[in-house]
Amino acid sequence: MMIASVFHFRHPWFAAIFYFCAFIVIANLIHYVLFRILKKKEEQQVGAGWGLRRYLSQPARAIFFLTCAGIALPLLPPLPENLNAIIRQGIAMAVVACLGWFAVGCVYVFQEIMLRRYDLKAENNVRARRIHTQFQLFRRMLITFIVVVTIGALLWTFNDPRIWHYGSGLLASAGIASLILATAAKSTASNFLAGLQIAFTEPIRIDDVVVIQGEWGRIEEINSAYVVVRIWDLRRLIVPLTYFIENSFQNWTRESSDILGTSFLYVDYSIPVEELRTELRRVVEVSRLWDKKVCGLQVTNLSERTMELRCLVSSRNSSENFDLRCLVREQMIAYIQQHYPDAFPTTRFAATSEVPLELRGTSRENPQSASPGTLESVGVSDRH
């Protein structure tokens, strides 16, 4: 009682500071206990502890601090009216901004919880890629909406009716503002609309295998204005969103990641095709790259010197199929080298030599009359 009376009557500022610090300690204690529990859940791999700690820890701490400041404000001694209004206005605006920050964190946590169920590393990850792509696009739109609402709410914290009017206009005319921005920045608006089309029609998804402008790669990232394609040699191809709406391209994993691949062999007519077909089956059966669905060898073309053999094999995805096709080429070439070395494409020449009668007579009667060049050419022909 004595301490309280000293604080209240003799040291009002000290009492206010004491209560404020006490509230801060209590708020930090609550924050520590709450997020300590979430950390335990993270370690046990239960719940969404990691996402909550990562995205909500700092905004929650800021909200606790501002709440303590708002509670301690009435305990202060009487302040000048202008100073009191400025402090209250600052606390109110800070609370609104922190609530917007907290709402953005909630969007990220929700995405983290939902995407945890869909593994992009699964063999058949079509649904997972679809969900990841849609969540990335919707997350950006939600964050944009939260930012607009937060700015409008900040304007509403002022006591000036004129500023209230601006806040109401900002919240009520978001659609009109979007049209104005679309007129002023056509390319940005086109990319935004292309993002909506991609989210709903799904021509591409995260981790899709695509061929764009002759480059093979995977969709690594879908941003609000462009798409990052990771090329097979680790280069990055930056493509505007509108490209995927306005141009044609190859998507190898649109419906499924399964894919067929071909390897061509060019061999002599003398090779037995059935034995090569048996060898191809043996090669793929011992490889983990084959998905045990398709394996075939066919004569697909003939030329005057060679046969074209097509080895058709299937795999779970395009990367494994590329490796399997290389393996088929290597093993089939080695088999032909070992068992049918003469069956590789060859060019046959039939050399004939006939000396004209008049040249023969001239040579017998007078060998000196034949020019050295003629005799040399005849000799070369005879050797062949």
Automatic annotation (TrEMBL):
Annotated region described as Disordered, given as residue ranges: 360-384
Keyword line: Membrane, Transmembrane, Transmembrane helix
InterPro entries (UniProt xref): LSM_dom_sf, MscS_beta-dom_sf, MscS_channel_2nd
MF GO annotations: mechanosensitive monoatomic ion channel activity
Mechanosensitive ion channel MscS domain mapped to chain residues: 188-254
Gene Ontology cellular component terms for the protein in this record: membrane
One Pfam family, short name: MS_channel_2nd
Transmembrane segments: 12-35, 62-79, 91-110, 137-157, 163-182
Residue stretches of biased makeup (Polar residues): 364-374
Cell location: Membrane
Domain of life: Bacteria
The name this protein goes by in its record: Small-conductance mechanosensitive channel
UniProt lineage: Bacteria, Pseudomonadati, Acidobacteriota, Terriglobia, Terriglobales
